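Attaching the record inline, Q. Sequence:
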Amino acid sequence: MEAGIGHSALLPGTLFTDRPGTACPHDAPGPQAEARPPTRTDRTRVVGSGPRSACIAHPARLPLASGSLLSSLGGHISNELRINDRIRVPEVRLVGPNGETVGIVPTDQALKLALEADLDLVEVAPTARPPVCKLMDYGKFKYENAQKAREARRNQTNVIIKEMKLRPKIDQHDYETKKGHVVRFLKAGDKVKITIMFRGREQHRPELGFRLLQRLAEDVEELGFVETSPKQDGRNMTMVLGPHKKKADAKAEVKAAKESRAAERASEAAEERAERAAHPPAAQKKARKRSENLDPDIDL
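Structure, as predicted:
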């Protein structure tokens, strides 16, 4: 019971809330209820008896009938287009199956045209006034969009930065091996980060690493360029090389090279089979050997 309120002041169905602007769900919406929809944090109770005593339940158990309340609490948002009977507007701007503009027609008439053409009425622009709808085969439309999305994901290119670590006093053979890896990365369309690692007193001779990075950049200048100049980073010196070719072009070239090698192998195999068929190897008769169990004096 609230302080300062007696039993004589209470009427059946009186609603008490801890927040202003909250109405009982059984009452018609008033100006206060429209100002702020009830939330699950409102603590509501009803003093009285009768069928309205159901409002004593925790507000979390109350039915969520308001669309604004559902949107404020969050929920699943569908990306599907409205089709056929799901279109509730009175009139739409209709577009034919071949892209021709029919005009503004009632929704019932548009549905009848879609039924006669054995097509679906799809709401392609719901925010327009009136909404734009098109006659199409919705199943085929969804399939084609899925195929386009799959092809786009297949053709998308991700730039990968490879890393190659060197020492200032690297041997010539090791240098050639590392340079071969860098060349392979650049041919594949990837960026390469070159790191020179200094140890001990080598840190006082940064010019050794700088000259080594310059030498490597000159050796691979036909395949890549210096994207980030050499810079000292603690005990390391780094440089980034970028490829002249784009990743997509490099992938296309690699794919074409694989297909050409496969075609060459297939042609060589076909020629070998044809040669074998034209000149079959002669069957050689195995020479008969003398049996060791026979008497050596017996003439065969």
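The two ends are 131 Å apart (CA to CA). The chain has three domains: 7-73, 84-154, 161-247.

More tomorrow.
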